Amino acid sequence: MALNEAATLSRRTFVKGSLAGLALAGAAGGALYGCSPKSEDGGAKDGGATGATDQIAWSQCNVNCGGNCIFQWHSRDGKIVYMESDNTGDIDLQARACLRGRSMRRWINHPDRLMKPMKRVGKRGEGKFEEISWDEAIDTIASELKRVIDTYGNEAVYVNYATGMYSCTGKQPGLRLLSLLGGYVNQGYDYSTHMLQAIMPYMFGSAANLDDDGNHATLGKPATAFSPYDNVNASSFSEAERASDLVVMFGNSPAETRMGGANAVWDFAKVREAVQGRGGRIVNIDYRLNESASGHPDEWLPIRPGTDAALCSAIAHEWIASGQVNKEFLDKYCVGYDDDTMPESAKGQNKSYKDYIMGTGYDMVEKTPEWAAPITQIPADRIRELAAEIAGAKAPFICQGWGPQRHTNGEDTTRAISMLPILIGQIGLPGTNTGQREAEPSVYLVGSLPAKNPIETTIPVYQWVNAVDHGHEMTATNAGILGADKLSSDIKFIWNYAGNCLTNQHGDINYTHDILADESKCEFILVWDTVMTDSAKYADILLPDAMRSEQLNMQTQGYSEYYTAVVVGGPAQEPPGECRTSYDVCADIADKFGVKDSFTEGKTQEEWIQELYEAGAKADGDMPTWDEIKKQGVYKRTLAPAIGLEAFRTDPVENPLATPSGKIEIYSETLADIAATWELAEDEAINPIPVFTPGFQGYGSVSDEYPLYCTGFHHKSRTHSSFGFIEELEAVARQQLWMNPADAESRGIADGDKVAVKSPAGEIRIEAKVTPRIVPGTVAIPQGAWHKANMSGDRVDEGACVNTLTTYKPTPLAKGNGPAHSMIAEVTKA
Amino acid sequence: MTQYGFYFDNARCTGCRTCEMACKDYKDLPVNIAFRRVYDYEGGSWADAGDGTYTSDTFAYHVSLACNHCAMPACMAKCPSGAIEKDGKTGLVHIDQEKCTGAGVCVTTCPYNVPILDSETKKGVKCDGCADRVAAGQDPVCVESCPVRALEWGDIEELRAAHAGTKAGIAPMPSPDETTPSIAINPCPAAKDPGDTTGAIANEKEVTNVPA
C-alpha cells in the first residue's frame, strides 16, 4: 500500500468519528492524520488578531525555566487579545517565547483565575473556601503572624520555595515585609540544584573559606567560590560554539529544560552547527532519546538513570590504564588524584581517587568498563570508544544538566562527571568546560525590591517538612542546618507566594499531606496565587494575585540564556476581580504592624521600579533613560563568551580556588571530617572522593514488588507545574509515561493504554507512551502534572504527579531532593 | 506570480510546538483546531546482548506542517463549491468562508490533512499563510515564533536557492509529486523518505486533537 493510500484510509477512519481509529496506531504507520474536531465545545473565542488592537504593552514570562522570554501584548478595549514575542533587532538575539509563553493569554484570561481573597472552611488540604473581604484577610494574616512571632519567635516563620512569579517586585515585597518584622528562617540551596550546590564547594571552593574582602582566608589571594549560577566556574555555550570540537552532555537537554528563543536551546542549536562544521561531534548521554538529540540519534548514548558516575569511573579507568591522564595538571592543580597529593591526614592509606578507580582502595573493586557495563547498560566496547574519543579531542566541552545530581546519589554523581575534564587537564582552556552546566550571564542590569533578612539560620530547602514536623530536634550535624547549630523552633507559619512546593513540586505528597493537615504542627499557611493549585488547597488564607502582565513590570533576562537584557512595561490589562499586586497587599499588612512607612519609604511600586531601573542604568552606563525604556520596552545586548576557571588555570597561585588548599579538591579533607562527625543513618554515606554509589532506590534496589526504575523529566507542556491547567498545552503535549516496548509487551501494555504506576510512596494513573526512546527497565514520568486525588479516600492520583511516587528521604550531605529522580515502581494496565 | 512558501529546518526542530501555539494564539483557535501541527516520527528497536547491556538503532524526529500552499492544490481541484482560491500574486491558498458549504471534501482530499471542519461554523478552515501579515511585509506568526529559527518564509524558489539540498517531502509526508507543495525541507540526519515503513507517527492523539 502506498503511503498516500494509507493516509487516506486512516484519515477516513478518523472522519467517521469515534476513537476507534486510534486502534490503528501501529498499523497505520506513517500516515498523517486529520479529522473533524471531536468536541462540540470549541472554546469561547475572546481574542486573536482578527480585529484592530489599540495598545501594545511589553512584559516578560514569569515562570521558572530560567528564560524570562519577552512578551509583546496586543490589547483591544483593555483586554489582551494576542501576543507577539521578541521580534526586535538582530534575529540571533531575540528572546522568543516558547509554546508556554505563547499560551500565557490562556492563563491570564482563564475562567479559573482566583478573583477574591478566601479563608479555609473545610479541613486543611480539602480545598473548601469561603470568599472574604481584603480587610478580613489582612487582619487575619497580621494577627496570626504577630501571634506566631510572639509565641515562637521569628525562626518559626518560613517563606516556602516558590518561583512562579519572577519579577523585580514579585516575591520580594513579602521578603521585605517579613525582614522588617524581625525576619524568617532562610532556605538553603534550591530544588533545581540541591545536591550539587551542597557538594561542589568542597571540590571547587566555598565562600566559607573567604575573608570579608573576598580573599582566600589562609592564602590571602582573591579566590573564587563555587556557584552553579555564574560564568566563573563554567564556560558558556558560546565558548563551545567558538572553539570546541567535542561536546559531551550528561543528562542535559536544553530543548526541554530551557525552551525559549534567546534561551539555551538556541545557544545549543548554534553549538551543534559550529562544532559539526569543524568536523566535531555531540555526545548526548541520557536515559531517553531526548528532544535535544531528536533528529540526531547518532548523538545519543543511552544510559541507565543514576549511573553516570559508574560510566565516568570506567572512563577514568581507561585513561589511567592507558596513561592518558594529565599527571602534571593533576599534581599542580588538584588534591587527591593519587597519593602524591593526598593531605597528610589521609596519605599512605589508599584513599586517593586513583586507588578507588584501580581497585587498590575503598571497595577494592577495579572500575573497568566490564564492571560498569551491566550497571550502565552500556557495552564495555562503547565505553572504551567514548574514553578514546574524549581523550582524542582537542577541546572537549563536557557539561551536565541538573538531572544527574537530582538523584539520591547526586552528590557523588555531579562530582564524578566533573572528574572527566579534570583527569585530562581540559579545564580553563579555549573550548573546554569544567564538567558543570554551562555558564549563566555575568550581568544583570537591574536589581529587585531590597530586603535584608536579619536571621542567619538556614534549613536545606528540602528539609522544610521535617522542620514543620520536628524542627526543634534538627541540628547542623543531624539535619544539615546552616548558620546555626540548631533550629530554635518548629515551623509554625508558612508564607507561600506563587509556588506549588507545599505538595506538588516538593515530594512524597501523601506523607507531606499528613504533616500539613495536622493543624497542631504548622499553625498557619498563607498562600498567594492566581489559580487553585494543589498547594493552594492547604491555605488558611488564600489571596488572589495580579499577573505580571496586569501591572507595571520590570525584569532582567533569565539565568539560562547567555545575554543580558531588561524589559519594562505594562499593564497590558487591568487585574480581574479583586486581584491586587503583592506590593500593595504587603504595604497594607505592614500598616497593621505600624511599619508601612519603612516598607514603602513613601514610594509606590511604580516609583520603586523607576528607582531600581535608574540605579541600574547609572551603574551600567549604556542603558536607555527611564523615559526611553518606557517607550521602547526592551534593552538587550550580547555577552562575550566565558571560559570556566580560566584565571585559575592561567595562574593557580595568584587565582586560587576557595577550597582549603586553593586547588581542585578531588579528595576533600573537609568532607572526610563531615563523614566522621555527622549523624548518618546506616544506609547513608558521605564520600570524600567522587565515587559511584547506587543511592536510595537507585541501581540494584528493584524488587519483585517494584521491578522497574522510575524517574522524572521536564515536559514541554509545563514549566514545573506552571501552565499545568492549560488545556491547549496538554492537548499537544500529553502527560504520558515513557516505557520501552520490551517492558510494555511483558505487561500486556499497548501505546495509549491507561496504566497504574505504583511506588513505595503512592500510586498514579497515566497514559502509556510505548517508545524505543527510553532504555529498557526504566520508566519515566513528566514532572509537574497537577496532583488530583481523594486524600480522604484511596489517594490514587489521577493527575499523574510524579511526586505522588517519590519517597521523602533527604540525601546524606545536602539533605536534598534526590528522590525526585530516584524511584522504583511497578506498572500495570489500569 | 511569486509563490510563497515555508522553509523548514528539520535538523533544528526539537518538536516544541511553539509554532503551533503561536498560531493558535494569533488566530484565537480553540483547543480542538490547529492550523499547524507537529508530527513526532519515531522508529527503531533494541538489541539485548544478554550480559545486561543493550544497543539500539532508535530514531526520532519532528515535522512541523502548516498549509503547504501547493502549486497544484488537491483541495482546490475537488472543492464542490469553488470556495478554495489560490491568490494570483502570492500563490497562497485560502478558503472563502462565504462560498464554503462545509462539504468537507478538502478535509478528505488534502494529502497533508491540513483543512479542518470547524464544528461551530461548519466551514472548512486552515492556515492562510497569515496573508494579512504578509501583505503588510511581515512573516507569518509561526515563522517569527520559532525558538531555534527553524522556519523561514518567502518566495519558495528563493528559499530553495538559499538552502542547498532541500526536499519537498520527508516521512510521514506523502510524495510531493501529487500536489507540488511549496515547502523546502532541510532533512535531519534521521529523516526518512516519503513512503518509509520503518517508523510511525508517535503522537497520533496530539495531531488529531483528542482531548487530553
Question: How would you characterize this protein structure?
Answer:
The complex is a heterodimer of chains A (830) and B (212). In chain A, helix 6 (194-204) packs across helix 15 and helix 13 crosses helix 14 (380-392). Among the domains of chain A are: 1-42, no CATH class; 708-829, Beta Barrel (Barwin-like endoglucanases), CATH 2.40.40.20. In chain A, a hairpin with a 4-residue loop joins strand 23 and strand 24. Chain A is an alpha/beta fold and 830 residues long. Chain A is 28% helix and 15% strand. In chain B, the strands form 5 sheets. In chain B, strands 10-1-11 form a 3-stranded mixed beta sheet. In chain B, strands 5-2-12 form a 3-stranded antiparallel beta sheet. In chain B, strands 3-4 form a two-stranded antiparallel sheet. Chain B is globular. The model of chain B has no long low-confidence stretch (mean pLDDT 97). At the A-B interface, helix 1, helix 2, strand 3, helix 9 and helix 25 of A face helix 1, strand 2, strand 4, strand 5 and strand 8 of B.
Question: What labels describe this entry?
Answer:
heterodimer, A: 830 residues, alpha/beta, Barwin-like endoglucanases, six-stranded mixed beta sheet, 26 helices, 28% helix, B: 212 residues, alpha+beta, Alpha-Beta Plaits, three-stranded mixed beta sheet, three-stranded antiparallel beta sheet, 12 strands, 19% helix
Summed over residues and divided by their number, the pLDDT of chain A gives a mean of 94
Largest interface in this structure: A-B, 96 and 96 residues
Order of neighbouring strands in the sheet with most strands of chain A: 5-4-16-15-14-6
Query: What would the principal axes of the Cα set say about the shape of chain B?
Result: globular
Report on the biggest sheet of chain A.
6 strands, mixed
Under the CATH scheme, the architecture of chain B is 2-Layer Sandwich
Q: Would you count the extended β strands of chain A for me?
A: 26
Oligomer: heterodimer
State which percent range the strand residues of chain A make up: 5-15%
Which stretches of chain B are poorly predicted, pLDDT < 50 over at least 5 residues? none
Radius of gyration of chain B: 18 Å
Number of helices of chain A: 26
Q: What is the spatial order of strands in the main beta sheet of chain B?
A: 10-1-11
State the helicity of chain A in percent bands: 25-40%
**Estimated structural class of chain A:** alpha/beta
